[in-house]
Structure formats: structure tokens, C-alpha cells
Design a protein that fits this description.
391 residues, mainly alpha, two-stranded antiparallel ribbon, globular
Amino acid sequence: MMTFENVFSDAKKRLDHALRGNAPEQHHIQRCLTLAEMIEWNHSNLGNELGKMLGAKGVLLFDTIAPRVSSLLQDETTSELRNYQRFMHELMFVHDLGKIDPNTHAFDGSNHEARSADIIAENQDALQNELHWTEDNIEFLVYLTRHHGLFGITRIGEASIVFLSPILESLINLNTNRKQLFLDFLTLLTCCDAGASGDFATNTFYLDESRITLYDQLSRELFAISENLKQKDHAEASSALLAKASEFSNTVVRIKRIITSDNQLSAPDERIEKALNKMLSSGRFDAKSFALTRFDHGAYVFPQLLTHMERENKIVSEESLEKLLLFLGILCDGQHTQRIIPFRGSYSMKADLQARNANNFYALREAVEQGDPQKISDVLGKHINDFPGSV
């Protein structure tokens, strides 16, 4: 009998082969599945691992979202969605299948969401003919997989809400209940993903109250916008998202998310506001360009820079904030369209990349700590395209 796992068995074998020797990623993928399977859909999650990470307040939100999925699907006629717990498992099974370079077959986490979605689309015939999935539900699975990283990178400041526009594109043709269902599954998926990311050695993970609070807020905002969105309004919606993301208050919020992305450092809002006003006045930071720029693996660069500059301090100083904002201003300088700055292969200090990127990171750290704009640009030019002196 053909099963969902059988349909994607070849892709799973390729991924398993690529992950040989990569224990952190192996653990991440298994923990994603484990967390998905422990979700209590109509009872409290306070007593399980999800509740432990979310805390008493965070789990209240989670315990609102999961039962709503159950309620929205109580009259579902298709077998693939009627069993929402199985669908959640299947979603987690495929969401990371694209973490492999299609040419070298080596592990590659960059842009894996799109590749994972493509793998599902490539197996559409098998899902329809062998498992009798409807075309609409296959598309639903594809879109969830394609967009599953967007809430996460917004929480850690790697992207502004401008980069959530693809979710709006996916929501536009769905009815009200289907939109809510999509956003609820996306939130649950992101929670499991964050709960499976972190430090396995110390058993500490990224999911916490602040993350689910943001995921819920983003879900509500996107739902409200999508309910009033028509096909012809896409350009206007994108402009509205950019205007909102560029506001001073939202810029402060994103900077704070960057600082707190690894749950180790913090900074008072007033201190961030003061440093930001100073950099805006000097012309060294542009809020619109910042909103249009996404930092791939920024969570493995920015906190590490700040931690070094602060030594033992957990509250970031105004001086360090100004140096961070100078660095961010240089990274985003002159951006008028959306752009992704790639740190994964250059400066990221993620555990499995540290050995390869350490020397690059140390050179960058020295330049940022010195607060020298030219030196920062020179260092970036060695590895990031479009900077002066790029090679």
C-alpha cells in the first residue's frame, strides 16, 4: 500500500545521505517530527515539551490555535485534511526535504523552503493518483512548505514584514476559513521548527513566549489584510507593508529582535531609539533600505558580534548599538528593492559552519568593533557581492 512517506522516500534518502555526519541537522529534523506528534489538539499542552518551552502564557496562545484547527476541520470531507494530526506530521516530514544542493547533493540549508516545495509539486501526480489528494490540498501543502521560514526570520530580525508578502499572495484566493487554517498550520509549523532549533548539548531551544506571541500577531495582521485584499491591490499591499516596516517604531522593534535573536542579550527601547535617531540624523542609516534588506543567517552573525563587544554584559551599550547600526546601514546602503544578504557561506557562526567561516567572521568582528566604515566595506567586499572592492 502506497503511503505518504513512500511518495517522498527517494527525496528522504537523498537528504539522509547529505546529513551523514551532521548531527545537529539530524537531531533538528527528528525533533521537528517529535514535537508535531505531541501536539494536544483539544487539551492543554502545558504538561508536554511544547508547554515547557512556551511557558504558562505562551501555551495559552498555542492552546487557542490548535483547537481552532480541529474546529475548522470538523466537517472536512477530504481524508488528507480530515486527520489534521496526520497532516501535521506529513507537513513536518516534507518541510526540510530541500536542504540539499541539487547539483552536488551536499547539505545546503539556503533557500531550502523553495526546494522543499518544489519536491512536493514534482510528486503531485503520485499524491493525486495513489493517495487521492485533491489538487487544492496539494497546493495548500506546497504553500505552507514554501513559506514556512518567513515567520521565523521575522522574529529574529533577519527580515521585515515586507518579506511576508508571499504569504499574502498565497492567501488571496482562499476563503475566510481556509485563510485561518493556513495561518494556524503555519504558526504550528513555525513553533515546532523553533522548538527544534537551538543548542542540543544544553537542551535549550528557541521556542518561547515571545516567539509564539509574534507568530500570532503576524497571523492576525496578515489575516486582516488578506480579507480586504483583491487581486488588483497587490502592489498597493506591498507598498503598505514597506511603509509600515519603515516606520521608526517598527524599525526599533526589528533592531531589538536582532539583538535578542539568540535569547542572550537585550537593550532598553529608549537606548535603541537614541542610537537609531543619532544614526538617522547622520545619514548613516536608512529605514526604508533596512526594511528592504533580509539577512540570511543574520542570527549567527549579529548576536555574536554584540556578545564579543559587550564581553560579560547582557545589556547592550549605546556605543555597541551605534556600531551595530553603522554596520547595518552599510549592509543596506542604497537598497531600493528587496535584497537578501548572504552570510551563510561567509560569516555565519552556526555550529556546523564555524570552522569554515571563523577567519572571515573575526576579520568582520574587528572592523565592526573599530567602527570604521571603510574597513567594514572592505571586509564585506571580499565575500558579499555589490560592495565596494568586491572580488
